[in-house]
DNA sequence: AACCTTAATTAGTATTTCCGATTATAGTAA
DNA sequence: TTACTATAATCGGAAATACTAATTAAGGTT
C-alpha cells in the first residue's frame, strides 16, 4: 500500500486552487513559494497522476486535479471538524456556527433567532449567510458553512436534515380586490396574469405553486420579483395577488399596507422548513438543539 | 487556528484501538512502540483532550477517544479512497472491490455475478462478504466494505443507493397442500401456524410479511429457520408453507423437491434490491456500472 | 533591450520523526 | 522475598523531511 498524501500537501493544493497563483497561495499558507511548489509535485508523485498542467508561465488544473481538490476539501473539512470537536468537547452551544439561510426565510427568522440565542446561549457566535438553495448547498459541501435553514422538499444531495415545522402560504392582495372572494380562494375567480411570483431561483415559487395547487399557469404574471418585499409592494399597488409565507406576515411584512391575507386552495398550503447538515458531521447534538430552538420560532413547529 | 492532527497519528490511534496494545499496534503500523506512544501523546496534545486513560500497566479509551476514533476512521477512509481514486484514474472497473451482500441474496447472486464479471471486467477483483444488513452497514461506515447489495426499504443511515430491481415473493408449499388453493392465495385458507419464516435478523422476514400483506400473525409458526434452504427443507417435509424470493427459485432452490410456488396476496408482493454506498464515495461511476450490471441478473430489473 | 512576473530548481538549514535503549510499574512464578 | 515477564513512558541521537533564500528559465511588458 502506497503512502497516504499528507494533509499539509492537500491544503497546499487547495490554496493553489483558490488563489490560482503559487506565490499568493504560498503566502496564504505561510510558506515559501518553493515549499508549496515542491509540495504539489510531491502530491502528484504520491497520487501517481498529473494534477496541474504547467505552461512555463502559467498553469491549469487538470480534470483529475479538480476532482482531487473536491475530495481534499472534504478531507480537510472533516479533519478541521475533528479538531474543533475535540477542542470544544462538551460545549455544544459555544463557539462559531456558520449558518446559511434562504432569502425568503432569513429576514423573518434571523432577528428573533439571534436575539433569543443571545439570551439562551450567549457564547454561541452565529454567523449567517443568505443565499439561494443551490449556492448554500454548495457552500455546505465545501465546508464553508456548517448548517442550513432551507424550505423543503429539495434535493439534499446526500445531506441530512431535521424537519423543523411548517410555514403556511397566504394569498395576499389589496383589500379592494378581496371583497367578492371567499376562502379558500378558487383561482378561477382571479383574472389572468394576476398572480405575481418571485424569480425562479427562489424555491418559494415552486413550493407555493405546488402546495397551493395552482395548476392554471395562465393566472401567473410572467413578470417576476426579486424579494418578498417587492411582491408586497406590487400587491399593494393593486397590480395583482401573490403568495406570502405566514412567517413573513407574522413579522409584519404587511404592516402599513392595505393588503389582506386569504387562505389559498390546497390540501396543505404550506412549505416545510428544515435544518440541513452534512451526513459526516460531528455536531449533531448542536444541530439538534438548534433545530428545536428554531422550530419554536416557526408558525407551526413540528419538532419537540 | 491550531495545527491539524496528522493522518499518521490518527492511524496510530486507530491501530491502538483495534489491537488494544501498544506493541502489537506499533507492529501493525511498522513503527516502534515508542513512536506510536509519542504519536498518541502528540495527538492528545494537539486535540487538547485526553483520548486514553492510562493505568500504569494498561489503558482504556475515554468516551472522547472512542469518538475521535470514529471520526478518524472516516477521515482515513476518505484519504485512502482519494489515493486509490487518483492512482486508478480512468479504470473504473479494475482493481479490488469489496462488496457486502445479505444471506438471502448472496447465494443466488454471487455465482452468476462473479462468472459474468470475470468475462466483462476480468481485472475487477470482487471480494464478497455475506452478513446481516446491520453488520454490513457498519462495515460500510467503517470503510471495510465499498458497496452493499441489500433488500430495501431499510434505514440507510445516511448512505445512498441505486435501486436495481424487484424480486417477487412466492408462497412455496408442498404440492399436496396446494390442491384446493387458487391464486393469489388468501391466507385464511391456510391453517394456523402453517407459515414458516426466517429469524428476525433477516430483513426478508419483515419485507415478506409487509409485501405480501400477511396481517394475521396467527398463521405464522413461531419456529424460525436460519436460511432459505432450511425453509425449503421444512416445506418439503410438509411442515407448512413459506415465502421464497423469485431469485432463489430461478437459481433452482426448489429443484429435487415436491414444492410448488404460488402467487401470494399483496399489491406488489416483492422486495426491492438496492446497491448501497457511502455518500462521500468517489467511485460513483464504478457503482453505477456495477448497478446496471447486477440489475440485469435480477428477476425484474429497474435500472437502465 | 531592459524589466517584471511567474514557476521550477538547487543547496544548505531547520525541524520533525523515528528508533533503540532504558526506565518505571505491575503482575506472576519460583 | 526474589527473579522474570509484560507493559507503556522517556530520552538521546540518527535519519528523514520540510523549509527557505537565492537562482534560473521563460514569457510578457514597457
Automatic annotation (TrEMBL), chains A, B:
Gene Ontology MF term list: DNA binding; DNA-binding transcription factor activity
Residue span, HTH lysR-type domain: 5-62
Recorded superkingdom: Bacteria
Keywords: DNA-binding, Transcription, Transcription regulation
Matches recorded under Pfam families: HTH_1 (PF00126), LysR_substrate (PF03466)
GO cellular component terms, semicolon-separated: protein-DNA complex
Gene3D superfamilies: Periplasmic binding protein-like II, Winged helix-like DNA-binding domain superfamily/Winged helix DNA-binding domain
Family membership noted in the UniProt record: Belongs to the LysR transcriptional regulatory family.
Name the record gives this protein: DNA-binding transcriptional regulator, LysR family
Species, as recorded: Pseudidiomarina woesei
Organism taxonomic ancestry: Bacteria, Pseudomonadati, Pseudomonadota, Gammaproteobacteria, Alteromonadales
